[in-house]
Amino acid sequence: MADMSVGRELLDVPLPDMVTKLSLGIASGQSALDKNSIETAKFLAEEKVPIVPALTETIAEDGTVSFDQADEVDLSLLQIGLNPSFYQFAEATIEVSIDIKTTTSTDTSVKVGAQVGGGFGLWSASVRAEVAHNRKFQKEVHGTSRLFVKMVPVPPPPRIYPEVKIVDNRKPGPEK
């Protein structure tokens, strides 16, 4: 009868409780995913690498080539285009299945024995009957539950990227 408790436990969980627990689990998981993405964004914003923002190639009249580069600037990994990944739960499914198999078997056996004895004018008989009745019940209960969750990547929030403004204070030079 102990096997029956597996099926009973699965059947005893009300559907609203299953849905609530699944929803709270997804909310907790989503919160952990968001926190991880925020920590990644902070790291990408703080980690700086030296970048050469401009390189000028000049070809002289005699065909020689020279290169001039602007001074290096330190840009964050976020500024150079590395972005954190964000995810969201797109689908969640609870599936519960229970297989119950019950078998009953009955064995009955009868044994009869007689003993007759007697002498002059007397006689006796004794009958002995044994009835054995055996009934067996077998129950097999198999319960399985499956949780399927699908996560998909989503674009990061648009305001995570720094706004880039270019201010060119150079004086216009002669046009060539």
Mean pLDDT level: 77
Would you identify the regions where 5 or more consecutive residues have pLDDT less than 50? none
Which percent range describes the beta-strand content?
over 45%
> What coarse outline follows from CA principal-axis ratios?
rod-shaped
How many helix segments?
2
Number of DSSP strands?
Answer: 6
H/E series: HHEEEEEE
Widest β-sheet, arrangement of strands: 1-4
How much helical structure, as a percent, in the residues? 10-25%
Radius of gyration: 42 Å
Largest sheet entry: 2 strands, antiparallel
The span between the termini is 96 Å
Classification by helices and strands? alpha+beta
Question: What would you say about this model in short?
Answer:
The chain has a domain at 4-102 and 142-160. The chain is built from two helices and six strands; from the N terminus they run ααββββββ.
List the helices and strands and how they pair.
Layout: H1 4-12, H2 15-46, E1 48-51, E2 55-59, E3 65-69, E4 73-76, E5 86-119, E6 122-154
Antiparallel strand pairs: 1-4, 2-3, 5-6
Keywords:
alpha+beta; 2 helices; 176 residues; two-stranded antiparallel sheet; two-stranded antiparallel ribbon
Describe this structure in words.
By secondary structure, this protein is an alpha+beta fold. The chain has a domain at 4-102 and 142-160. The chain contains 2 helices and 6 strands. It has helices at 4-12, 15-46, and strands at 48-51, 55-59, 65-69, 73-76, 86-119, 122-154. A two-stranded antiparallel sheet has the order 1-4. It has a two-stranded antiparallel ribbon with strand order 2-3. Strands 5-6 form a two-stranded antiparallel ribbon. The longest helix has 32 residues, at 15-46.
